[in-house]
Each structure stands twice: as structure tokens, then as C-alpha cells.
Design goal:
Elements: E1 6-10, H1 18-30, E2 36-42, H2 43-49, H3 53-67, E3 74-80, E4 94-98, H4 109-118, H5 139-167, E5 173-177, H6 187-199, E6 206-208, H7 225-245, E7 253-256, H8 263-275, E8 280-283, H9 287-299, H10 301-316, H11 318-322, H12 339-343, H13 347-354, H14 365-372, H15 375-381, H16 383-391, H17 393-413
Parallel strand pairs: 1-2, 1-8, 2-3, 3-4, 4-5, 5-6, 6-7, 7-8
Length: about 425
Amino acid sequence: MRIENYSMGVGDRFGHQGLAQLSAFARAQEAGVDVTPVWNKSNREHQIIGTAPGDVRVEADAAVSAGKREGSYYVDADHINIDNVDGFIDASDFFTLDVADFTGKPASQSDIDAFVEKNCRFTDTFSIDGIDGELCVSKEQIAEIASKYLYAVQKAGEIYRKVESVKGAGNFVTEVSMDETDLPQTPLDMLFILAAISDEGIPAQTIAPKFSGRFNKGVDYVGDLEKFEKEFNGDLAVIRFAVKEFSLPENLKLSVHSGSDKFSIYEPIRKAIKKFDAGLHLKTAGTTWLEELIGLAESGGSGLEIAKEVYSRSLDKFDALCAPYATVIDIDKDSLPSADEVNGWSGDVYASTLRHDQSCDIYNPNFRQLLHVGYKVAADMGDEYLNALKDNADVVGRNVTENILERHLLKVFGG
């Protein structure tokens, strides 16, 4: 199983927007932008909402059937580990092996020493096409990198082999993820991480590093754009080099996690993948849930009332909702409107405050981030929320489709 050059992960927390999401990919294809959809949902989201991995497969298959899609699509066991992978194996054909918790934890000294000796050829001067100047690393540098990442890659190998033992080699796509950590990886780190992945026998087709800067949920990138662009281009150069050097899959590509709405880096990413003729996987999740709220607000009536209720309850449960996402949100609580203020809003004001349109004077990223993590509130509302989605399916679906198409697919992969 070989994933296509361009792919995008789309989360759908409540499982009602599969066809609307797929419509965005179909319309992009009509515009000459061919991107493969990947439905992703993490174990944490399943636990909060009360769904199971098989539900994602059912939704994806139903959407593809109804939308008459002829191309490939995938179901991603998103951010799984050795403890929860079993529940995802049957339903998934894409596995994101999350080993961020093991970065910074050293492997055994004998394993580190062996890794250094195996890669000591890089202590001589070498060059990588796409990176300026000659490179040379010491054994001490290799050992330092190995002490940060070798154990994590070994853990990825453990998860991979567990999946392979059930599904068989070549029957699924493997991604290695190290993004949910405070430790950004440099292109040089990436080189030796890929060497370790090869040693573990993991046929990784995508890799998700931690980039410099803040990738907060549902809002724009915060960081040094020039530094990001140099880092991203360096990673692409290293991947191209490593594929040959370490006999990795030739279609290995970068995966950008929390990629939704990182509008300021989309142009540097688009330029880089064109320059290197490289693939890309862009992973999004909560964007669709926010478009549901926007659609409900625009629908008015009971839909708007539910959207307001979600905000009011989210504000009441601020600490509990934000705690699991503390490393990927930055909310200025003083900039949040009160529940009473929101209760007086029209549907257009609610939608415009939430929709990620930075040219809009009333757009509020703090409001957006709180609602991004507030999906547990809607889950607790049960049928009241789900029935509202059904009753307002046209308006909600239009927002879901246009967001994925206009703000993501065309901006990142078009041109």
C-alpha cells in the first residue's frame, strides 16, 4: 500500500460530515488539485465522544460510496501507542505511531554506541543537495542525537511490528510522529532519526517532526517564518537524501500535524514542495467541528441557541477542557466574551467571531481556541447536538466543504 503524493487528514469528531468533507476533495480535483483524503481520529477523541475506531471506517466508506469517489482514501489510527493500538488494527489502514512521550529518554548505552559506530561515516565531510555548505558531525553529536531520539524510534518499531503481525507487511501506511513534544527537531536531527527508522525496519511513508514555533489548535502559526521556511526546506532536503542513503520508501514525505489554519506558513510550504517535487501530508482535526458550530449559528433558531449553549458551558468548564490541550493552545481568558454577551449575538456575529478570517474585525482567536477544545460539551449534549446537525445539514455541510477547499486544499496544494 503506497500513499499518494499529496494527502490531507480530516477529522470529524461527530461523524456527520464525511460527505461534505469528501465534496471538498472532489471540487479540488475538478480544479486540478489532486489530494487524497485520510479520515483521522485519535484515541483521546474516541474516549471523550464515546465512539470507536470502527465508526470512522463506517463513516469513510459510506461517504466514499455516496460521493462515488473512485480514488484512494485511508482511515488513520491517529496518535496511537503500544497500549491502545489493538483497538484500531481492524478498522485502519494508516497508522500514526506517536512516540513523542519517549523523546529525550535515552536508549541503552550499548544501543547508542552501536548506532554511533554504524553512522560514523558522517563524521567525514558530506553534503546534502538543498542545504548550503558542507556538513560534518562528531561522534559526540551523533551520540547526543541518539540519546534524544533512538529510544523513541525503537518504541515506534515495537508498535509497527505489532500492527504488521496482524495486517501483514505492505498492507498499511506507516507514519512516525514526534510532534507532540517541546523538543523541536532540526534537519540534522531528522537525518539520524531517519537512520534509526531504517534500522528498525519501519517502512515509514510519512514522518511528523516537531517544527519550531507554536502550532496551536485551529489558529495561525506563531513563530519566526524565515526560520520555519529554512527548517522545512532543510527537512525536505534531508528526506530526499535519506531515502537513498538508508533505503527508505521513495515516497517518504513530511507530515504537518495541527496543520489546520496555519495560513502564514502555507505559502512557504507550497513553494517548498514544488521546489523539491516533494509530497506532503497535512493533518487537520478540529476544524470541521468548528465549522459545524458556524453552520449552526448561521442557521439561526434552535441551531444558534445550541451554538450559544456550547460556548456558555465551555466557559464554565474552561480549566477542565483546556488542561489536556495546554501545550497547543494559548487563550487570553480576559479576551473571551461573557456568556451573557454571546447570548445577545446574532448568528452572523457568532459565526464571524468564530470563523478564521483574519481580515474580519470581530474574529477572536481566543473564542475560537476555547470552542476548539469544547467538543466534549457537545458530546455531553448527545442527541440534542446531533439532531441539530441533521436539521441544519445543508448550511453546516456548506461551511465544512468551503473551509477545507478554500482555506486548506487550494492554498497548500494549489498553484
